[in-house]
Amino acid sequence: MAHSGISRAGISRRAVLLSSAALAACSGRGDQPKPPTTIEAAVAGAWRLPADRARDVWRHPVESLKFWGLKPGQTVVELWPGAGWYTDILAPFLSATGGKLYTANLEPTDADARAMIEALRRKFADKPRLYGKVEITAFGPTSGPLAPAASADLVLFLRNLHNWMAAGLAEKAFRDAFAALKPGGVLGVEEHRADPAATPDVLAASGYVPQAYVVQLAQEVGFTLADASEINANPKDTKDHPFGVWTLPPVRRSSARGQPADPRFDHSKYDAIGESDRMTLKFLKPNTPHA
Fold it and tell me: What domains sit in the chain, N to C, each tagged with a CATH number?
């Protein structure tokens, strides 16, 4: 792909993510909560922001993590955690069960990216008993390994593949995930799902990605598709919104990217849809080398 650099969608989200990360880092100081030892307890954790917990009805974290096979004591890599929506579930669970979390953030190439990483560091430092020792690595155009080679049980792509497609990083994401995983390890993918009949767009300008294309990218690297789930499906999503997937909650865009919000925009139709229709895929790294 000719396009390079961080995606415009990713850039437009940074201010929101930075403010959320700062709030999370500063909230709940004082008593350290008891680390959770089950996925359910981690999802129910009082340390999670109310706005994050309100989205569980759309993101189904318990069901999704169980589908991907998250187990106590595993080593997990989460790419581009943002303000930490899933990190606030993964890190406490893995810390409590003797596991390990790597968060592969944006490469710290500008002030926004550096500030987001620092907010995550403060979050982890504020509650060391809860979060444990999270390793912060990077994923971007020039980044190195996500984690030590063949060390991870599970790598997660959580609603970011469209950004990597726009930035020309999709193939690198799959290669880096394959390198980080143990033989037999799992790559879990949650992504906005395009209509299968839609014209393919390698830059994913609408935010929606064809499921068949995701499978193709994974298989080209050497992954095998183990399973697909409708956990995060939303049949009400027509996928033809004026400002792409970002018209829907939680972003609720009301104008073109880079333009001021339109106070006259009627969100009711899109709020009634809810969050996007999403594919939920489970890939395996084979136990034998890819031919």
Answer: 8-284 (3.40.50.150)
